[in-house]
Request: fold
Amino acid sequence: MSNYATPVNTNDTDDGLAPWPYPRWIAHRGAGKLAPENTLAAFRVGASHGYRMFECDVKLSSDGVPFLMHDSTLQRTTDARAKLRIGNSAVGGDHSWGALSQLDAGSWHSRGFAGEPLPTLNAVAAFCIRNGYFLNIEIKPTPGLERQTGEVVARRAAQLWNDATPPLLTSFRPEALRGAMETEPELPRGLLLDTLWSGWLETALTLGCVAVVCNYALWDKSSVTQAKSAGLRTLSYTVNDEWAVAYLLDLGTDAIITDRVDLFAPTA
Reply:
């Protein structure tokens, strides 16, 4: 296992930034590739490797229940084609939670996870809070429901984490973050970026973000300096190679989201 586990001092303000309550290492979708993504089984596998913070994707069922799933459609990570007879609608958000809760979200990964269900945000919150773990919720709306998803996820998160360190809410969709901000302004937010599009920094500040979460290849001395000078924390996804970790640590970035929970020891 790699020893790239430089700790973050969460009370360190030498860089002029506000204290940061989260660990440096974040397990992508629960446990990266070792378990079916965005399931409680994945969270348990990630935790067994020492991870204390997890990233997951949350969207809404057709009846407004926040649940974990990355893709807009159901086929890749569930048995929806056979079980729901989905016909013309493979979109997860088109189905009620009652229907979604019956799906097998584990068999696609491997036989040992057969029957693993999709979890609600409530279930993941209970797991994290009771075990003292931290969460990064990527708001992953069904197209057209960006603002509504941000509002519902923020409201539910505020209710669930009312006495615990709140989750970091992130999204590629500014409108989702705006919905979250206007619903629960005290929850921390981060803007996800796959390119440094014009106005990214101004948008992050307008949305009251505390962090920017970039494709790791976007970080260099200039972009890190811009973000930190604006008071923003710098996070990276999805970092699976030792050379990339060494580069990001040398740049002084704040957190690393990885699939390789089996490679990097998260002592921070």
Notes: The chain is about 30% helix and 15% strand. The chain has a mean pLDDT of 94. The first strand starts at residue 25 and ends at 27. The CA atoms of residues 12 and 82 lie 52 Å apart.
